[in-house]
TrEMBL record:
Source taxon at top rank: Bacteria
The protein, known as: Spectinomycin 9-adenylyltransferase
One of the protein's GO biological processes: response to antibiotic
InterPro entries: AadA/Aad9, AadA_C, NT_sf, Polymerase_NTP_transf_dom
Length: 252
C-alpha cells in the first residue's frame, strides 16, 4: 500500500529536518476514522514544534513535501498544519498555526514560493474539528502521546468549527455534491447523536436516520466516495432540497 510508504517517509524526513525542535507528528482525518480511500482521500496530519519555523526551514519542508512525499500521496494529496506546542497546550478558537499546506494551495505555492512561505500563517476555525478528531481517534506517527501534547477541545468549539465548515452548503453542494452530502450527514450525526464520524460513516448513518426520499442521493455519494464505476447523477433540485432540509434539522 502506497500510503504505508508515505508514512514511513514522513516519519523519517520530518524528524531529520526539524531535529530537536520537533515535538511530534499526528494523524487525523479519514485515515484514522476508517473511511480512508487512496483513490479519493487526502492524508491529514499535524506537525507540532517547540518554536515557530524559520522561512528557510519552511522552504525545506515544502521541498521535502513536494519531492519526497507528494509522489506517494493519495488522490487528494496531503494536508498538514504546523502548530507550536504553546498553541496545542493552550487551546483557543480559532487556533493559531505557524504554517499550512494542502492540495488547494499547491498552485498558490508554485506561483510564488517565497510569498507563500512568509504569508502562510494565522488562525484557522477548522483546527478545532481536526483536533477533536485527533483526540477521539488520532494516531501518533512520531512523538509523545496525544493527551500530553494537546489540550482538550471544548464541545462548543468543535461545533462552531463544524458550522463554519458547512455554512456554504447551499452553494457548495452543487459544486462538490459528494463531499457536501456526506459532510452534512456527519455533522447531523454529531448534532443529534454526539457521534464523530468519517464522511463515509456519516453517509451510512444518514441512510438509517434520514427520510427515504434522500436515499438515492446518499447512495450516489457513497458510491462516488468508494470510487465505484458509473455515471454520477445529482439533480440540482434534489441537492437544493437536501441542503435546505439538513440545515433546518441542524438548526443552522
Amino acid at each position: 500500500m502506497q500510503t504505508e510508504q508515505l508514512l514511513a517517509q514522513l516519519k523519517t524526513a520530518i524528524p531529520e529536518l526539524l531535529g530537536a525542535n520537533l515535538v511530534g507528528i499526528y494523524l487525523h482525518g479519514s485515515y484514522v476514522l476508517g473511511g480512508y480511500n487512496e483513490a479519493v482521500s487526502d492524508l491529514d496530519y499535524l506537525i507540532v514544534v517547540k518554536k515557530p519555523l524559520s522561512p528557510s526551514i519552511k522552504q525545506q519542508l515544502m521541498t521535502i513535501t513536494l519531492t519526497q512525499l507528494w509522489p506517494l500521496a493519495p488522490a487528494k494529496g496531503l494536508e498538514f498544519h504546523v502548530l507550536t506546542l504553546a498553541a496545542t497546550q493552550n487551546f483557543q478558537q480559532p487556533l493559531p498555526f505557524d504554517f499550512h499546506f494542502s492540495k488547494y494551495h499547491y498552485q498558490h505555492y508554485l506561483d510564488n514560493p517565497h510569498r507563500y512561505i512568509v504569508t502562510m500563517h494565522g488562525s484557522d476555525p477548522d483546527l478545532a474539528a481536526h483536533l477533536m478528531i485527533l483526540q477521539t481517534a488520532g494516531k501518533v506517527l512520531w512523538g509523545p502521546a496525544i493527551a500530553t501534547v494537546f489540550a482538550p477541545v471544548p464541545a462548543t468549539a468543535y461545533w462552531d468549527s463544524v458550522k463554519f465548515d458547512i455554512a456554504a452548503a447551499p452553494t457548495q453542494i452543487t459544486l462538490d455534491p459528494m463531499y457536501t452530502i456526506l459532510n452534512l450527514c456527519r455533522a447531523l450525526a454529531y448534532r443529534e447523536a454526539h457521534l464523530i464520524l468519517s464522511k463515509q460513516a456519516g453517509g451510512k448513518w444518514g441512510l438509517k436516520q434520514l427520510p427515504r426520499q434522500y436515499w438515492p442521493l446518499l447512495r450516489q455519494a457513497l458510491r462516488d466516495y468508494q470510487n465505484q464505476p458509473g455515471i454520477a447523477c445529482y439533480p440540482d433540485q434534489a441537492l437544493h432540497d437536501f441542503a435546505t432540509m439538513m440545515l433546518t434539522r441542524l438548526k443552522i
